[in-house]
């Protein structure tokens, strides 16, 4: 999977993707991140990419630099690829939608991370294929939302997780009927007077599976 990220703050991604599961996946070339600093596509002497919205008091990302950045990526990959716009509303993500986006983004896409109040509507009208939200709230800038979306997609790539079977049986998975996962336990068997349920110590796989399904939350 190749992901092209257009952002004013590419450095904001470095911490998250330089540790844990995401770092290992990048090191193993299971996915690829490409950053494009939006200011580099500005014709302004001070490399500004925003302007005051008509008849409003807030700043909006201008159409020209954003269009140039998107077209630059299209030219680089020799084709038009899906463009994702992270928003505070519209299509709210859940696990089933993540799985669908994983299938239909065709292994390569652009994410636009915006700042200030919004982006020029004409960019949405001309270029955007998917407006995606992690929930109904507003952020100062949308790199964080992009990281959430990328993580949720990348973990579906084969071998990103140490055990691929864990994708089949986790909260909101299809196998669990999109419900929250059952309680889980590990050693010691007794902790602060609370004991692991006897059925999980029994070795009876059929009964354990029944217990799991009966304890979905």
Characterization of this structure:
- The chain is of the alpha/beta class and 217 residues long.
- It folds into two domains: 2-154, SPOUT methyltransferase, trefoil knot domain (Alpha/beta knot, 3-Layer(aba) Sandwich), CATH 3.40.1280.10; 164-214, Trp Operon Repressor, Chain A (Orthogonal Bundle).
- The chain is 30% helix and 20% strand.
- It contains seven helices and ten strands.
- A five-stranded parallel β-sheet has the order 2-1-6-5-8. A three-stranded mixed β-sheet has the order 3-4-7. Strands 9-10 form a two-stranded antiparallel sheet.
- Helix 3 crosses helix 5.
- The radius of gyration is 22 Å and the shape is elongated.
- The protein starts with a strand and ends with a helix.
- The mean pLDDT is 87.
Strand order of the largest sheet: 2-1-6-5-8
Q: What is the CATH C-level name of the largest domain?
A: Alpha Beta
Total E-strand runs: 10
Tell me the series of helices and strands, N- to C-terminal: EHEEEHEHEEHEHEEHH
Biggest sheet descriptor: 5 strands, parallel
In percent, how much strand structure appears in the residues? 15-25%
**Which architecture name of the largest domain does CATH use?**
3-Layer(aba) Sandwich
**Outline type:** elongated
Q: Over the alpha carbons, how many angstroms does the gyration radius reach? A: 22 Å
- What's the number of domains? 2
In the predicted model, the low-confidence regions spanning at least 5 consecutive residues are none
**CATH level 4 superfamily of the largest domain:** SPOUT methyltransferase, trefoil knot domain
* End-to-end CA span: 33 Å
**Helicity level:** 25-40%
Helical segment tally? 7
Mean pLDDT value: 87
